[in-house]
Design a protein that fits this description.
Largest interface: A-B, 24 and 22 residues
Helix content of chain B: under 10%
Number of helices of chain A: 0
Strand content of chain A: over 45%
Radius of gyration of chain A: 13 Å
Number of strands of chain A: 11
Largest sheet of chain B: 6 strands, mixed
Order of helices and strands of chain A: EEEEEEEEEEE
Structural class of chain B: mainly beta
Shape of chain A: globular
Distance between the termini of chain A: 36 Å
Number of helices of chain B: 0
Strand content of chain B: over 45%
Largest sheet of chain A: 7 strands, mixed
Distance between the termini of chain B: 40 Å
Oligomer: heterodimer
């Protein structure tokens, strides 16, 4: 099992460009999450999906959109990237035991 | 508001015991989790406390006191590979989790 996978691993964008970060899990988990991690600030929840077909805002949703494509896949879209969105983005999933989240390897995004 | 506070850095010697504290201010936290993250890596789950008391998993133990809004992670028999960042995280109900800013642990030989 691959667990949680994310693509791409690295990305550089110019201000105003758009892109989609992909995430997939093969653990048959219902719940999936997108976090961003900035130096000294820990992880902040952007959006989450409690189950297939539902999505909800987290702490810092502005500037992002998400799609829960199916049970396995949860994508994060930046419509018009800004330098403030330079960060490391982690996707995570959890099963019935919500307390334990499994994280993907992360996407390191730089917006110039 | 909802927040968790941890020391930014802790240094300890190989073979020793170290405690990383976490205090939180929130209403409705239903438990405390701990995650480990090595530089350049992803967070990995270590432990969870739903109730007051101590939970032990090998060299790692975690403690929670809900009345004091306080918890800690205890690492015993420190090894060089334990050098990493450690995050406490609180479940706020439903699916939302709030993470602390993390404690960077340096293990010296």
């Amino acid at each position: 099992n691959a667990g949680v996978t994310q693509t791409p691993k690295f990305q550089v964008l110019k201000t105003g460009q758009s892109m989609t970060l992909q995430c997939a899990q093969d653990m048959n988990h219902n719940s999936m999450y997108w976090y961003r991690q900035d130096p000294g600030m820990g992880l902040r929840l952007i959006y989450y999906s409690a189950s297939e077909g539902t999505t909800d805002k987290g702490e810092v949703p502005n500037g992002y959109n998400v799609s829960r494509l199916n049970k396995r896949e949860f994508s994060l879209r930046l419509e018009s990237a800004a330098p403030s969105q330079t960060s490391v983005y982690f996707c995570a999933s959890s099963g019935r035991d919500l307390r334990e989240q499994f994280f993907g390897p992360g996407t390191r995004l730089t917006v110039l | 508001g909802q927040s968790l506070e941890q020391p930014s850095e802790v240094t300890a010697v190989e073979g020793a015991i170290v405690q990383i504290n976490c205090t939180y201010q929130t209403s409705g936290f239903y438990g405390l989790s701990w995650y480990q993250q090595h530089d350049g890596g992803a967070p990995t789950f270590l432990s969870y406390n739903a109730l007051d008391g101590l939970e032990e998993t090998g060299r790692f133990s975690s403690f929670l006191s809900r009345s004091d809004s306080y918890g800690y992670l205890l690492l015993q028999e420190l090894q060089m590979k334990d050098s990493a960042s450690y995050f406490c995280a609180g479940g706020t109900g439903g699916f939302k989790t709030i993470f602390g800013a993390g404690t960077r642990l340096f293990v010296k030989a």
